[in-house]
Design goal:
Elements lengths: L2 H20 L8 E2 L8 E7 L7 E5 L4 E7 L2 E8 L3 E6 L4 E5 L2 E6 L6 E5 L7 E4 L2 E4 L1 E7 L2 E9 H12 L6 H17 L11 E2 L19 H4 L4 E5 L2 E2 L4 E2 L37 E7 H10 L7 E9 L5 E8 L2 E6 L1 H5 L10 E5 L8 E5 L4 E5 L4 E4 L2 E4 L4 E5 L4 E5 L9 E7 L7 E2 H9 L4 H8 L4 E4 L2
Parallel strand pairs: 1-31, 2-14, 17-30
Antiparallel strand pairs: 2-13, 3-6, 3-10, 4-5, 4-9, 6-7, 7-8, 9-12, 10-11, 12-13, 15-16, 15-31, 18-29, 19-20, 20-21, 22-29, 23-24, 25-26, 27-28
Helix pairs in contact: 2-3, 3-7, 3-8
Bound molecules: zinc ion.
């Protein structure tokens, strides 16, 4: 669909959606339940694995406590007024030094060494190699890895997360919806990295978190105003997913990850201003050689790529099956793999691809008998004529409803593709909340509960205690 038509259609859907949603803007309703447990503190991995650090410099305005963490409980053993310290892992110890002198040490790296700023209550802060974090740090050797973990109050963690996951300049109700998503994610993923001894990492693998670094004055209210709130489904915290943008509709999770979740279904996303946001509408290309190299590097031995074809799309226009053919064979990708295989150019699963050789230039039509849908290339359509059955004899097929006429053309190409052009809509997996859609809804006057219940239909917002 061209962009102009899409914009017109969006305008219409927007109006219809406004009327439908108006009915539920009666007020914020949060049910109160006591069954959910939101942990007060989280263990967030800062340095581990590929980013392991054996030595860091810490600073705190009023000195430090040293001791041991057991889970998220800190057992204080010694204090120091030093404001600049170095913590170093050695083979069989962890040592704290200041100005070249040891001030604390443990000979049991597996039990670990905890560091906590002495003053500040919940607002205790320290800097790790210049980057500021709230809460304390746990240095520990876990399964032969040196791991540095930030033990941080849940809401303080969420201040940092929403500053990274959504622009703090956006409408407060969108930020509140984001805060609930981030809290639900944390609650559902405790111990995700138990092999390293912490709950969540600080990267996009979990949720991006850089301590206080990107916080602004707008980062706090969305978290504080939704404190203790979780979105639930049938008595359990819901698994909430979000991506930057999704075009006119979000996608059903079954068309992306293969599983079915009652509240991760396709919903209208017409408040998203897709045409005017970063990567809302995108295009990119791959040469035949680039596509061939990507396939080879990913382990698909199909020779030189000569065609990339969309075989099947979802009702929402996302690619369900993508066929990549080469001189030695072909490979069919399904669901999310259709987006990720060429992710150097594809920003979403919603795209079309054309080869410059024109091998894909036969349009298809879809028919239904009420139960089954079938798709036919227009040159395969059987046409009844006065002389009997025939196939399309011209290069064009016209369809008309008596008022408007639409033309489908078969265009000729050399058949040889040396370049593939991808044109698409949306940024990310397209499941759950569209962040730009949430922004649009918030700007149109919807509150965060409306936004969450729209993108996650059938869920409830509840107070954990
Ligand atoms: Zn992670």
């Amino acid at each position: 669909m061209n962009l102009y038509k899409k914009t017109l259609l969006n305008g219409f859907i927007k109006l219809a959606a406004s009327l439908a949603l108006l009915a539920i803007v009666a007020g914020i309703h949060v049910s109160s339940y006591a069954d959910y447990d939101i942990p007060s503190y989280l263990r967030i991995g800062l340095f581990y694995g590929a980013n392991e650090k054996n030595e860091v410099n810490l600073s705190s305005e009023n000195g430090f406590f040293f001791g041991t963490y057991s889970g998220t409980d800190f057992n204080q053993k010694k204090s120091s007024a030093e404001t600049e310290i170095t913590v170093k892992f050695t083979d069989n110890s962890i040592v704290v030094s200041a100005n070249g002198t040891d001030v604390y040490k443990t000979d049991d790296p597996e039990k670990g060494l905890g560091v906590f700023p002495t003053v500040g209550g919940m607002e205790r802060r320290l800097k790790v190699d210049g980057i500021e974090y709230r809460g304390g740090l746990d240095f520990k050797r876990v399964n032969d890895h040196n791991v540095i973990t930030n033990v941080v109050f849940m809401n303080n963690y969420l201040y940092g997360v929403i500053s990274r996951e959504m622009s703090p300049s956006w409408a407060p109700e969108a930020l509140k919806a984001q805060a609930v998503c981030a809290r639900n994610y944390a609650v559902n993923n405790l111990n995700k990295h138990s092999e390293y001894g912490f709950d969540l990492c600080c990267n996009v693998c979990c949720q991006a978190y850089s301590g206080t670094r990107y916080e602004t004055e707008n980062s706090y209210a969305p978290v504080d105003d939704t404190a203790n709130q979780l979105l639930t489904y049938k008595g359990e915290p819901a698994q909430l997913y979000y991506s930057a943008s999704a075009g006119s509709r979000t996608e059903d999770v079954k068309n992306v990850w293969g599983n079915s979740v009652p509240y991760l279904v396709s919903v209208d996303n017409s408040y998203e201003d897709t045409a005017n946001i970063p990567n809302g509408v995108w295009a990119g290309s791959l040469s035949r050689d680039e596509a061939t190299t990507i396939m080879r590097n990913k382990g698909y031995d199909i020779g030189t790529v000569n065609s990339i074809r969309v075989l099947e799309t979802t009702e929402n226009g996302r690619v369900l099956k993508l066929e990549v053919s080469g001189t030695r064979g072909s490979k069919i990708f399904e669901r999310e793999a259709c987006r990720t295989v060429f992710n150097t150019v594809t920003k979403s699963q919603q795209f079309k691809v054309t080869g410059n050789g024109g091998s894909q230039s036969v349009p298809s039509i879809h028919t239904t008998d009420g139960n089954n849908n079938s798709e036919l290339k227009i040159n395969e359509v059987v046409i009844l004529t006065a002389d009997g059955r025939s196939t399309l004899s011209s290069k064009s097929l016209f369809a008309t409803n008596g008022v408007n006429r639409k033309q489908y053309d078969i265009t000729e190409g050399s058949g040889e593709n040396t370049e593939f052009v991808f044109e698409g809509i949306g940024w990310g997996h397209g499941i759950g909340m569209s962040q730009y859609g949430a922004k649009g809804m918030a700007e149109a006057g919807f509150n965060y509960v409306d936004i969450l219940l729209h993108y996650f239909p059938g869920t409830n917002l509840e107070n954990a205690y």
